[in-house]
Amino acid sequence: MNCWENPYRSARSPLIAHRGVVATSHPLAVQAGIEMLRRGGNAVDAAIATAITLTVIEPTSNGIGSDAFALVWDGKKLIGLNGSGRAPASLTLEHMRALGHETMPSRGWLPVTVPGAPTAWRDLHKRFGKLRFAELLEPAIAYAQEGHPVAPLVAQSWAYALAAYRELRGAEFRGWWETFAPEGQAPQAGELWRSPNHANTLRRIAQSYAEDFYNGELSEEIARFAQETGGYLSKRDLAEHTSRWVEPISVNYRGYDVWEIPPNGQGLIALLGLNILEGFELAQHARDSVQSFHWQIEALKLAFADGHRHIADPDSVPVPIRELLDKRYAAQRRALIGDRALDPLPGDPYSAGTVYLCTADSNGMMVSFIQSNYMGFGSGIVIPGTGIALQNRGACFSLDSQHPNSFQPKKRPYHTIIPGFLTKDGRALGPFGVMGGFMQPQGHLQMVVNTVDYGLNPQASLDAPRWQWTKNREIEIESDAAPEVIIGLRERGHGVKIVEPSGRFGRGQIIWRLPSGAYIAGSDKRADGYAAGI
Known about the structure:
Layout: E1 15-17, E2 20-24, H1 27-38, H2 43-57, E3 67-73, E4 78-83, H3 93-98, H4 117-128, H5 133-136, H6 138-146, E5 148-149, H7 152-164, H8 174-180, E6 192-193, H9 196-208, H10 211-215, H11 217-228, H12 235-239, E7 244-246, E8 249-253, E9 256-260, H13 267-277, H14 290-310, H15 321-324, H16 327-334, E10 355-361, E11 366-372, E12 382-383, E13 388-389, E14 420-424, E15 427-435, H17 440-453, H18 458-463, E16 467-471, E17 474-478, H19 483-491, E18 495-499, E19 507-513, E20 519-523, E21 530-533
Parallel strand pairs: 17-18
Antiparallel strand pairs: 1-20, 2-10, 2-21, 3-4, 3-11, 4-7, 5-6, 8-9, 9-14, 10-11, 12-13, 14-15, 15-19, 16-17, 19-20
């Protein structure tokens, strides 16, 4: 892996640092993590502080009511944490259908699942943290109480959300308007935004080690507001929530092990795509070539078809991970790919919303962390007086009773947010991730290809033009892609839509550890943030 290659003139130089690195989508959150490293904290302390700060300064992507996932390299092995919540016990598929829904709604109480982020912060700290838990919340509390200037791309996302939420005027949505648009307007870039209620809630989480959120006054406020406004989330739903430590899943791609969280997350799709892609001599074709783009797109489409068919909560339905990741099955799927764009269909394996951040410290501990409300601010429901914006992760459930991901009480939905990690021969290379709904496994695949097949450094890999498969034979491709690639893909039957580079193609970060022990890192040009080190 050549970490120095950079063919993109517009790319910023990657960060090189030795004693620690933090990379995420907002500069102030980066500084919060760096502050914890300077105080003597480790990579997990930095990740938690960064994540909690992002709930304040980038509320357009995540909040206290988010879910979270993490991959932690503790210096010897990789450990996974699934911090996703479950559907309310009182809500059923039959009730959903009785309300006239054929697909899951995306706003209001119906798609709300139990928030998992506060427990995830606590569980990560309990197992790995060095600093006091309350200390990790200090930067976020200060920004919420004293205010912070809204970043340019955050302001843009806020304005988009305001336009989308104009019609959300029921009693359940009044907290959102009071918190995020009290005068009916989104804040402008550079405008100071304060949220004292958010600060108070974070203080209660800090003082109670997150217990107040699930078994205290905060849980009572959430349950009471749900009961008053037609919601389904109860005190018992919150009290019964737990994170889960999980064994990460992986495939070997050209000698590198690529790691993801197992289902209910969609990281499996990235691994499926890489397994299929491995059989093609990708490096014999230029990174910005029709052949390279075509193979990647076709492999990813087949991976998505299988992922959407099988990914679900493994506590409810067995997910055939081993069969899907079998190299023989990948060969069967690869054989379907020709020179023309295809309509993807799932195979038979038995026959063969988001903010992302990554951190690293001087001792070699590294963290890949992601949390999200989904679809911007989430459900549109904010518990009045608390700043708690509830996620709408239940929108990813199916209402087909025969589908593995069908809605059921106490079930976790198909989840889009996924942290990634790369190792080689048992040695940690580092964390990577690309946030952005169903773009995420597509971004993971492209970052691995850029790194392994084409030797791009982290910043160049992130800045390179991206593509995104949307449905059938339709793709979107960034406008800075080579014109001959766009023309060539259309000639092969791809329906190509050219789109300006933006967050719709994901916003990622990468940290790789060099043989010297130093780190090389990058942060996406499509976001406000950067990578910083000490």
